[in-house]
């Protein structure tokens, strides 16, 4: 019997998806990719394969999970299997450089960014920035490497000091600081390539933007703004009736890059200009924000995968 296969490396992130599968009575199995083996001469099972590999997998001790997943997806695709968030999606998940190039191809504005390898290259890149700037890891997730700097001298002290941590791929990004009028970013969620909802994220307490409860990292170096919200305001809040032309551009971007499920983050400056700076193909959802809005991202994902599985089964019955 065909089923849905979930490729992942973090049990905690899959728990709400398991509950959604059970609620909808969908057949599924999990493919936990931390280490292991894959016989490339074998033929994969029939089904729909959902790739949830994360750019931050190395922070959980799964250093080569993304690389192994890349080979696994290539194997599945070579046999014509239905893959949601395919090998192209994984390539964008683990490289912000690749993300920015793909976004630009769809006419989506991204911040001025310079990629650098090595201490001297990082410092030289910062010298060409106008005004304040931030650093971040090219292969990141969880706000890894995000720091805000007023000038080159502060950066030199950082890269020469004990706090500096290199990206797992060795590439540091130096990026223009977008001065937002308020300390918020917007994250736009898509399931099945279609808009699900947008969420407003308070960044005043740091730049850890993973919406799941299990993602909590202390990082006070927020690159968005310094104006604190009112104490009563939630960190994640689903925006009622969000409508913006950027949604259609994002939809085209996802379709062009084999991405079925993703959260895309943007920030607006004082002039109202939007800058898109992150595409997360391993999207999670904040349960408190969803409960307040009466929506469920994981249930939407499960329902979408169920429809894909039903379509696959119908096609195979017709072929038989």
How far apart the termini lie comes to: 15 Å
Strands, total number:
13
Structural category is alpha+beta
Q: How would you sum up the global shape? A: globular
- CATH H-level homologous superfamily name of the largest domain: ATP-grasp fold, B domain
The figure for the number of domains is 3
CATH top level class name of the largest domain: Alpha Beta
The CATH architecture category of the largest domain equals 2-Layer Sandwich
Low-pLDDT runs of 5+ residues are: 213-231
Task: Figure out the total of helices.
Answer: 9
Give the averaged pLDDT, no decimals: 90
**Fraction in helix:** 25-40%
% residues in beta strands = 15-25%
Main sheet: strand order: 11-10-9-12-13
Taken in chain order, the helices and strands follow as EHEEHEHHEHEEHEEEEHEEHH
Q: CATH fold name of the largest domain, please?
A: D-amino Acid Aminotransferase, Chain A, domain 1
CA radius of gyration is: 20 Å
Sheet with most strands: 5 strands, antiparallel
Which descriptors apply to this entry?
320 residues; alpha+beta; Rossmann fold; D-amino Acid Aminotransferase, Chain A, domain 1; Dna Ligase, domain 1; 3 domains; five-stranded antiparallel beta sheet; four-stranded parallel beta sheet; 22% strand; globular
What secondary-structure arrangement, pairings included, does this model have?
Blueprint: E1 3-8, H1 11-24, E2 28-32, E3 47-51, H2 65-78, E4 82-84, H3 87-93, H4 96-105, E5 113-116, H5 119-127, E6 133-137, E7 147-149, H6 152-159, E8 172-176, E9 184-191, E10 194-202, E11 236-238, H7 246-256, E12 261-268, E13 274-280, H8 287-293, H9 297-319
Parallel strand pairs: 1-2, 1-3, 3-4
Antiparallel strand pairs: 5-8, 6-7, 6-8, 9-10, 9-12, 10-11, 12-13
């Amino acid at each position: 019997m065909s089923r849905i296969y979930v490729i992942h490396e973090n049990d905690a992130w899959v728990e709400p998806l398991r509950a959604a599968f059970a609620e909808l009575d969908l057949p599924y199995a999990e493919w936990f990719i931390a280490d292991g083996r894959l016989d490339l001469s074998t033929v994969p099972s029939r089904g729909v394969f959902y790739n949830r590999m994360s750019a931050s997998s190395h922070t959980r001790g799964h250093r080569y999970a993304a690389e192994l997943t890349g080979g696994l997806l290539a194997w599945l695709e070579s046999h014509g299997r239905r893959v949601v968030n395919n090998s192209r999606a994984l390539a964008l998940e683990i490289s912000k450089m690749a993300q920015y190039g793909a976004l630009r191809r769809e006419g989506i504005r991204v911040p001025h960014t310079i990629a650098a390898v090595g201490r001297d290259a990082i410092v030289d890149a910062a010298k060409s920035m106008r005004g304040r700037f931030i650093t971040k890891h090219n292969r990141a997730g969880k706000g890894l490497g995000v720091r805000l700097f007023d000038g080159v001298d502060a950066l030199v002290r950082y890269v020469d000091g004990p706090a500096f941590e290199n990206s797992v791929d060795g590439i540091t990004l130096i990026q223009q600081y977008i001065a937002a009028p308020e300390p918020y970013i917007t994250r736009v969620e898509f399931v099945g390539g279609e808009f699900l909802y947008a969420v407003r994220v308070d960044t005043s307490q740091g730049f850890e933007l993973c919406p799941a409860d299990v993602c909590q990292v202390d990082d006070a170096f927020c690159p968005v703004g310094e104006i604190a919200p009112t104490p009563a305001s939630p960190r994640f809040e689903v925006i009622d009736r969000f409508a913006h032309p950027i949604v259609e551009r994002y939809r085209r971007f996802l379709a062009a890059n084999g991405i079925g499920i993703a959260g895309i983050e943007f920030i607006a400056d004082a002039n109202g200009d939007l800058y898109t700076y992150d595409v997360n193909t391993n999207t999670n959802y904040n349960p408190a924000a969803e409960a307040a809005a009466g929506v469920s991202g994981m249930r939407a994902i499960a329902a979408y995968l169920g429809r894909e599985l039903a379509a696959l089964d119908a096609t195979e019955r017709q072929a038989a």
